Amino acid sequence: MARTVLDSQLQLLDAQLLVMASSTEDALRTSIAALAARDAEAANAVIDGDDDIDHQEREIEGLCVKLLLTQQPVATDLHRVSAALKIAGDLERIGDQATDIAEIALTLQGELDGELSAHLREMGDRACSILHDATEAFVERDAERARTTIGEDAQIDALFESVKSDVVRGIQDEGSVASNLVETLMLAKYLERVGDHAQNIAEWVEYALTGRYKGEVLG
Fold first, then answer.
1. Lowest mean pLDDT among 66-70, 73-77, 146-150, 195-199
2. CA 40 to CA 34: how far, in whole Å?
3. Are 120 and 112 in contact (CB under 8 A)?
4. DSSP 180
5. CB under 8 Å to 65, separation ≥6 — which residues?
């Protein structure tokens, strides 16, 4: 009976994580689209929805604590629970970054530099792709897919370095802070952080499934 209750709670934990991952991915994609289209309604929807993502994180944390205190999880169960706590934390941070992007979408004046805008779109596409792949690996309980996803954010990091260099060069060329260059750098930084958190999720998915984290076996 005890194992049946534990399995039921673990399934509920998985379901809550999937709902949170879906909410977070939707927020990220919507914020990026709102930026491209200067869609104030969509941007405000992302900002308003951030509290719900925060609430989902607290629900997951509460379930994890309840599970640990009232059940008798074995090592593999502990991997799932501890990974769930970490994944929820990274999803919440991605939700925050989506909100930051939406807030810039509401205040941005004028057009972004064409090449920098293209870099931002590519960063956004890659960040969404990593997050989606990590979530799919979790859904399918596919450790190999999680491992394949790990490292993909290196491309986002490289794009961020390109944006950073171009922004610095643009500011120097203008002799002052040129229009939207600072905002462009902020957007690039937010997307770079999303990539980091998405990779973290993939690493924790692998840990939940195999007990290995960053190539090492943890207890």
1. 73-77
2. 7
3. yes
4. T
5. none
